[in-house]
Write a structure and sequence with these properties.
Oligomer: single chain
Protein name: Lipoprotein
Number of helices: 5
Radius of gyration: 16 Å
Organism: Pararhodobacter aggregans
Helix content: 25-40%
Number of strands: 10
Largest sheet: 8 strands, antiparallel
Structural class: alpha+beta
Shape: globular
Number of domains: 1
Strand content: 25-35%
Keywords: Signal
């Protein structure tokens, strides 16, 4: 990677830092993540972006965090299931994006470097993170991450996608319970559904 690209990629990924998500995830896990009757959709950043998950997922209002520059939204199953279901999270930044695929393709490689892994890390320590898979396809950065800094209630391996939505940069994650980890393809399938849903609700204008 050319040295001149580093400031650009750091500016792109800094608002997506895993550290921002750690506190609300930890707090939510302490409540045992019960099914919720919350709304299926929530608009954040002054209505700029709609957050919604696949069918059957609702917003956990208690875990939502929003500032002037970013928002974190947690989604859990709306109804009780016999087997604990993965939870979903969306981090929406105020950072504008023109959706240039070259930028996101370069980001895919950068996130496997030490500075990139530091941004993905829940603790900010790159040694906590191993990027097991990193691909760019369909305008999305797809990541399979192992992070030893994940809150204890969650499996250390999880899927994450980074993509432009409604002109903003968004990161979406699928986290399984520590005692009920998902199979690789199952987690990726849920994440793909999450990406499709986010694109659909924001295409409505």
């Amino acid at each position: 990677m050319r040295r001149a690209l580093l400031p650009l990629l750091l500016a792109l990924v800094l608002p997506l830092s895993g550290c921002f998500e750690t506190a609300p995830l930890t707090e939510a896990a302490s409540r045992a993540l019960q099914p919720t009757s919350g709304p299926a959709e929530l608009r954040v950043l002054d209505g700029a972006v709609a957050v919604a998950g696949p069918a059957g997922y609702c917003i956990d209002a208690e875990a939502t965090r929003e500032s002037d520059i970013e928002a974190f939204v947690l989604l859990v199953r709306c109804r009780y299931t016999l087997r604990p279901s993965p939870v979903l999270s969306a981090t929406v930044t105020g950072l504008s994006s023109d959706g240039n695929p070259d930028t996101f393709r370069r980001l895919t490689g950068f996130l496997q470097s030490a500075p990139g892994r530091a941004q993905l890390s829940r603790s900010g320590d790159p040694s906590d993170v191993e990027v097991l898979e990193a691909t760019f396809a369909e305008g999305v950065v797809w990541l399979l991450i192992h992070d030893t800094g994940n809150p204890n209630s969650f499996d250390e391996t999880y899927w994450r996608a980074i993509l432009p939505v409604a002109g903003r940069i968004v990161t979406l994650s699928v986290l399984a319970a520590a005692d009920h980890p998902y199979e690789r393809d199952s987690g990726l399938g849920i994440l793909r559904g999450f990406v499709m849903r986010m694109r659909a609700v924001n295409a409505r204008g």
